Amino acid sequence: MAKEYWRWKEYNWRDEKRDWRDGKVITGGVDVGSVSSQAVIMVDGEIYAFSNMRTGSNSPDSAVNAMNWALEETGISMDDFDFIVGTGYGRVNVPYADKAITEIACHARGGNYMYGPTVRTILDMGGQDCKAILCDERGKVTNFLMNDKCAAGTGRGMEVFADLLNVSIEEVGDLSLDVEEEPPPVSSTCVVFAKSEASQLLRDGWSRSRVLAAYCSAMAHRVFSLLERVGVQKDFAITGGIAKNTGVVSRLEKELGLTALQPRHDTQIAGALGAALFATTLVEKGKGRKKSQTAVTG
Amino acid sequence: MITVGIDAGAKNIKITFLKDGEVIATGISPSGFDQNAASEALMNETLAKVGLTHSDVDVICSTGAGRKVVPGAKHVLTEVSAMARGSLFLRPDVRTVIDVGAEEGRAIRCNEAGKVEDFAVNEKCAAGSGAFTEAMARALEVSLEELGKLSLTSSASVPMNAQCAVFAESEVISLLHASTPKQDIAKAIHDAIASRIMSMCRRVGINPAIMLVGGVARNVGFVQSLRTAMEEEVFVPDNPEFVGSLGAALIAADREVETATA
Amino acid sequence: MKANYGYMDGSGDYFITIDTDKCVECETRACVAACPANLFVIEEDDWDDLVALIAQDKRKSVKYDCAPCKPVTDRPPLPCMAECPFDAIEHSW
């Protein structure tokens, strides 16, 4: 089988400095996206463990797998949770969640925690969508816009290019910056047409770096116009998989004339993190599970 | 008088030779990487086919996405005027022309004199053009021709959620994984593109008779879906991909006559 | 909150914006009946406010669904905007 260049690595993490048994409130957030799924476990409102995996063909299984991987070696069992919130595209299919909240609200909440209360604009560039979210100092959404109809400006568009050029998705950004001068952006917005345009550029003798530079700047411009529609305010932050693509991020920052905040955690977990934060608030409001009645699913 | 219409499309170049109001030859070839060279070659090939030389041609008129680079063109026309002229020549009662090409779709409303009253174009997005059906055929691993025929054998209506060609490709693959019959997926694909074309038509307003032209009109599955969505008869000419070049050749002839009588 | 439902694609921007701060005040919910394409539904949002939103399955096709209300030549007032008592609805195209 041919190498699949769009594949990225899966991983999990846990805080080895703390013991969850010392905590009082244990909450979970799981974000089942169209491409990747994350689970976050919080102990007393601080991240304790998380996982990041590819979403399989079945949302409930992906939700279970992501949570099991985050739980791995922590000694926490499903019975220990006070509340779990599901979010993302597959949020209604999380078998063990107590509530489903949209990814818009969760990203704002997660972004507020991850970047601090000064963050006003959160751009989430996911695998199959792109969201521009404005929020207040409490992480409550004031304006949002989500584009999940068109592959342009999403991770999916980038995957198509990575595959076309036989470059692994993690290397796209750095490779696109390896050009002597910035080429004009790819002119087609539509991924299908941009792909034909790129094939033509390769035939014209363009290097892979140059083609990627042209595509990354087209994508940056696309995302810029999405942000313009909601009206960017400082501070600005980027979450989601594409936040790791330096080729798009640096070009977008240049176009915006703003520098994105540096995250305290992995940018892909923002949604799951927000979900876990909502769960924590709900427990604080006395809406948590009565632990003895909790059924374990999955 | 011999006039030539060249329709330099995104995927194919089409040529029509017109002698005193009669089509004497047509030709088609891929646009390739060098559209200029491709139209030159197609011109020479078609000339040879009918035993003519360059000097026998009175005037060349170009249209299509690559119309500005067609060598020797005296007139350069938009697709809208060419398609309208060509369609009304084939069927004088046509008032709505729907053109679906490789990379764009358009709906044109015209009056009884063939004058364009209104039109809507969908380009720059593969959904709603031939590129969409092509990508879906690839995902289903069937030829375009098979895709059309398969669709006719289905009476199911499976909804397609994705609008974007890239996302629709993944959806087709998930439908296959879920063991949805191929013919039902084929029909879903054509229903999806037909509904996009329909909405464009509603924007311009539909008056019968309706004619469907452009390469995608060859796709019997799409035609069927469009007829169902339209709830009206949709006429498809014998050579739908040549209507643009025919229109261009006709307009070239019209203009020669106008100049001569002016 | 300004909620933008719709999308951008190669052909343009197609968004319906609902200002939920205004919408939450509404008792008539006239938009639901006004829209011939049934785009509007009334649901609880993430902050437990009952507001109008664009139905999930219509968000990727607003350009197509709204087409009958937006003919090319003569553009009558859009029924959803005309009926909304709080001027909470906007269209971007």
| String of helices and strands of chain A | EEEEHEEHEEEHHHHEHH
Q: What is the CATH fold-level name of the largest domain in chain B?
A: Nucleotidyltransferase, domain 5
Identify low-pLDDT runs of chain B.
Answer: none
The dominant shape of chain A is globular
H and E string of chain B: EEEHEEHEEEHHHHEHEH
Number of helices of chain A: 8
Q: Helical region count of chain B?
A: 8
Strand portion of chain B: 15-25%
Cα end-to-end separation of chain A: 32 Å
Global mean pLDDT of chain A? 91
How would you portray this structure in words?
The complex is a heterotrimer of chains A (298), B (262) and C (93). Chain A is of the alpha/beta class. Chain A has two domains: 11-108 and 270-292, Nucleotidyltransferase, domain 5 (2-Layer Sandwich), CATH 3.30.420; 120-260, ATPase, nucleotide binding domain (Nucleotidyltransferase, domain 5). Chain A has helices spanning 59-71, 103-115, 155-165, 172-176, 191-203, 208-230, 246-256, 270-284; strands spanning 11-14, 26-32, 36-43, 46-54, 83-87, 99-100, 121-125, 130-135, 141-147, 236-239. In chain A, a hairpin with a 5-residue loop joins strand 8 (130-135) and strand 9 (141-147). In chain A, helix 2 (103-115) packs across helix 8 (270-284) and helix 6 packs across helix 7 (246-256). Chain B is built from eight helices and ten strands. Chain B has a five-stranded mixed sheet with strand order 3-2-1-4-5. In chain B, a hairpin with a 5-residue loop joins strand 7 and strand 8. The radius of gyration of chain C is 13 Å and the shape is globular. In chain C, the strands form two sheets. Chain C has a three-stranded antiparallel sheet with strand order 1-2-5. Chain C has a two-stranded antiparallel ribbon with strand order 3-4. Chain C contains four helices and five strands; from the N terminus they run ββααββααβ. Chain C has a single domain (2-91), classed as Alpha-Beta Plaits (2-Layer Sandwich), CATH 3.30.70. With 93 residues, chain C is an alpha+beta fold. Classes of the chains: A alpha/beta (298), B alpha/beta (262), C alpha+beta (93). Chains in contact: A-B, A-C, B-C.
